[in-house]
Design a protein that fits this description.
The protein contains no helices and eleven strands. The chain has about 120 residues and is mainly β. A hairpin with a 6-residue loop joins strand 4 and strand 5. Helix content is about 0%, strand content about 50%.
Length: about 120
């Protein structure tokens, strides 16, 4: 079975850091792109970052603060989040892309076929 397990969320003060993990099972990470999305209460789910074998994409709101990476041996994708702001507060989800995505496609949730359960990030003083 394909599964994605997101973890690493928590409570952090503004300016702090967190590292999210997305552990994949049932498929080889090297064969698929993985996206990170977030959803705040009352807001639509938005793409945060995406990685495949050759590309990394970031939303403008997180570029230069967040870094996506992957460890093929552990079949895990990471999202290092630095300089966190209150507006980063949301449930964060990882998802497997259903095909190789280009820049104009990665933000659309409809281009992903499996989703993790979400991990909550709260940034507050």
């Amino acid at each position: 079975d394909v599964q994605l397990q997101a973890s690493g969320g928590g409570f952090v003060q503004p300016g702090g850091s967190l590292r999210l993990s997305c552990a994949a099972s049932g498929f080889a990470l090297d064969d698929y792109g993985i996206g990170w999305f977030r959803q705040a209460p009352g807001k639509e789910r938005e793409g945060v970052s995406y990685i495949n074998r050759s590309r990394k994409f970031y939303a403008a709101s997180v570029k230069d603060r967040f870094t996506i990476s992957r460890d093929s041996a552990k079949n895990t994708v990471y999202l290092q989040m630095n300089s966190l702001k209150p507006e980063d507060t949301a449930n964060y989800y990882c998802a497997r892309a259903s095909s190789r995505l280009i820049f104009s496609e990665w933000r659309a949730p409809s281009n992903y076929d499996y989703w993790g359960q979400g991990t909550l990030v709260t940034v507050s003083s």
